[in-house]
Amino acid sequence: MAESTKPHFYLPKIFDNEGGWGPATNVIPNQFRDIPYAPYSKGDKLGRVADWTNPDGQKQDNREVTGRQGRTGFNRFNRDQHQAYGASFASAFAFTHNEDESSFSVVDNRSAIAKKMAIKASGGARSRPQNNKANNQGGGYRTVNQRPQNNRQQHQQQQQGGGRRRYGYKDYDKPQRVRNASINIGADWKVLDEIEFNRMGKLSFGIPEAVDIASYGAVNYYNKAYDRVNTKNEKMLQNIERVKYDTTTSEDPIIQQFIKDDKATVFASDTVLSLLMCATRTVYPWDIVVKKVGNKVILDKRPGGVFDFVTVNENTFDPPAENEKETINSWSSLCTEATYINNNFARQVVDQAKLSFENPNPFASEETKNQLASCGYRYREFDLTSKADAAAAEGSEEEANKVSMIVRTEVDAAIKNGNQTTLMTVRALNEFDPAAQGAGGALSWKKSLDSARGAVVATEMKNNAAKLARWAVQAMLAGSDQLKLGYVARMNPKDNTRHVVLGTQAYKPKDFASQMNLSLNNGWGIVKAVVDMCLQLPEGVYVLMKDPNRPMLRIYAVPGEEDLDAYEEDDEEEEEEEEEDEESQK
């Protein structure tokens, strides 16, 4: 074979692009230069060359299709077609930087299922009512899957039940309110310990027996005519001016004498001790002042603090608003109203006859001794010595490990049962507006108290679990045989100045506590743990505070002998200055 007919193999010429990647610029033809690189996907399909099925200007799906959409746009005739090669990537090279970044956008890449779940969680999903009859049962209650069929039915339900609703799917995801602490924490305060509520719920201690030490004051007898009050025979709540002393523990002259005589190790009042025993049920912030003097521990309250007011619907799903100062259904206004109702109800349901205790009222003066409210003070001792401490002290002559507590308790009235006289604790529940925020799904008392009192009490136990538990504990600490509850409502839901008594109900404190699943062993276990912790602290002033936004307790060491009331007065002065500034601006 001749050499000219032999096949030849020539290596292609390699162009090395030292300045970047891709083909070198010197080998690209002139007509293809300055064209940006547009990648394409293998899934791209060629569109139709011409679409004669949808001419320009024709309406499809009640929408006018423009000329551009008629050829290559998306419609129901060519929805399975795509644009030309690389058309979906052309927008990547069209980005232009602007200072306002108007070309930036966020893409929602959630799946369709996630979007539907988000809509349901926000309350936007609707479903059919299953039964018209079920919508009207129970005074306006309806199940999660039921909605009113029309405006008339919805109006009827709002009239019957205040327009409330039952909470369902993912309502627990509602953002928690951010509350302020009950006292301003100083910059130099030091956190000594933190105790979470779930740990406190596991504590337990045997219920100690109470030993009466002394009793002071006098109580009036209960007027049994109020047991016959009902919604058809209501009584107006009267404003009765009387003086009642609720002095803090360290300023009590009787307790001061007990401290000098070394009668006990720990001293407290029933208001402070009951709050500590029911701490795991509380939601609102509070604080207790702990004073360590020698080997003595004193549990105090601050004047004007949370102990001087009665809370309303603290444990409901959506508590009353806290930032609206001028509304009658705000948190502060409701607490003031509930405190006013409790004070006047206890003074109204008693007669003129009195039962005097061993000693006169220790807080009364010559000016106020004839204007005292019905109140008796019983000083009782509780032994908090554990079995381990008692076993360690058996072999020694000294009782160094013995821990005893003296508590000042209060009773409000006395009642005669035949020849026997028993003591009573009197409290009042109040209804404000079933349709307002924070009502907690409460029934209208004027319509349901006589016919469905069990449902009313169950709702109050749910919405006011902390308050009712404290009342039951206070009654048991004082040795009361009865806990008398009154039901007081507004005459007009829009007026918080006039109230009526709709009924009363008596409970045995232990039975009432068992209905609420209140564990006294757990309450005394919390007290025992706090007392043991405080006994190990050096002398000084400490603050035991409930975190305003988390279920836990913190104990702070207050340096020096600071006036804790000043931390509260600063807030009041700032609020007054802000109000003056607003008035001056107006």
From TrEMBL:
<feature type="region of interest" description="RNA gate">
    <location>
        <begin position="306"/>
        <end position="320"/>
    </location>
</feature>
<feature type="region of interest" description="Disordered">
    <location>
        <begin position="51"/>
        <end position="73"/>
    </location>
</feature>
<keyword id="KW-0648">Protein biosynthesis</keyword>
<dbReference type="GO" id="GO:0001732">
    <property type="term" value="P:formation of cytoplasmic translation initiation complex"/>
</dbReference>
<feature type="region of interest" description="Disordered">
    <location>
        <begin position="559"/>
        <end position="586"/>
    </location>
</feature>
<feature type="region of interest" description="Disordered">
    <location>
        <begin position="118"/>
        <end position="172"/>
    </location>
</feature>
<comment type="function">
    <text>mRNA cap-binding component of the eukaryotic translation initiation factor 3 (eIF-3) complex, which is involved in protein synthesis of a specialized repertoire of mRNAs and, together with other initiation factors, stimulates binding of mRNA and methionyl-tRNAi to the 40S ribosome. The eIF-3 complex specifically targets and initiates translation of a subset of mRNAs involved in cell proliferation. In the eIF-3 complex, eif3d specifically recognizes and binds the 7-methylguanosine cap of a subset of mRNAs.</text>
</comment>
<dbReference type="InterPro" id="IPR007783">
    <property type="entry name" value="eIF3d"/>
</dbReference>
<keyword id="KW-0396">Initiation factor</keyword>
<keyword id="KW-0694">RNA-binding</keyword>
<dbReference type="GO" id="GO:0002191">
    <property type="term" value="P:cap-dependent translational initiation"/>
</dbReference>
<dbReference type="GO" id="GO:0016282">
    <property type="term" value="C:eukaryotic 43S preinitiation complex"/>
</dbReference>
<dbReference type="GO" id="GO:0033290">
    <property type="term" value="C:eukaryotic 48S preinitiation complex"/>
</dbReference>
<comment type="subunit">
    <text>Component of the eukaryotic translation initiation factor 3 (eIF-3) complex.</text>
</comment>
<dbReference type="GO" id="GO:0003743">
    <property type="term" value="F:translation initiation factor activity"/>
</dbReference>
<dbReference type="GO" id="GO:0098808">
    <property type="term" value="F:mRNA cap binding"/>
</dbReference>
<keyword id="KW-0963">Cytoplasm</keyword>
<dbReference type="GO" id="GO:0005852">
    <property type="term" value="C:eukaryotic translation initiation factor 3 complex"/>
</dbReference>
<feature type="compositionally biased region" description="Acidic residues">
    <location>
        <begin position="560"/>
        <end position="586"/>
    </location>
</feature>
<comment type="similarity">
    <text>Belongs to the eIF-3 subunit D family.</text>
</comment>
<dbReference type="Pfam" id="PF05091">
    <property type="entry name" value="eIF-3_zeta"/>
</dbReference>
<feature type="compositionally biased region" description="Low complexity">
    <location>
        <begin position="145"/>
        <end position="159"/>
    </location>
</feature>
<protein>
    <recommendedName>
        <fullName>Eukaryotic translation initiation factor 3 subunit D</fullName>
    </recommendedName>
</protein>
